[in-house]
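Lab channel / #folding
Pinned by the channel admin:
"Please post every new chain as: sequence first, then the structure tokens as a reply. Keep commentary short and put observations after the output so the thread stays searchable."

First post following the new format, from NK:
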Amino acid sequence: MPLSAKVRERCRALLPPGTEIRYLFPAVASTAVGPSLVSKPFIFVVTDRNIVMLACSWLSHDRPKSVHWTYERSLRLGPVDTTSDPVFTVDGSPFQTWDEYVSVIAAADAETTRDSFPPDPLPDL
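Reply from TO:
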């Protein structure tokens, strides 16, 4: 299910004014701490200028609290490994997402460079 308009507005509040949100999807980073596994939820916001990773608290996955990291828009998020739960890697760190967001990641990656678009069939118009 897509993230709600309410979540989108919460994300927009943490972005610079005038930023256009292109794609939005949740992900979870898991880290081993001693014998247990700790999960940290994030919301990735793909904008017209960059990719922003918003940190959420572990109790409220739909309430971003702060900007955790900002990446260049040219960063590719895929490919997504779908052999079990969908996993993608950013800066060497694996993030798990849900099946319904794999197409969102693919669409965001398709826009990373101008070369990824098909050539204009009628360039003279």
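NK: The longest strand covers residues 21-33.
TO: also worth noting, The CA atoms of residues 78 and 88 lie 6 Å apart.
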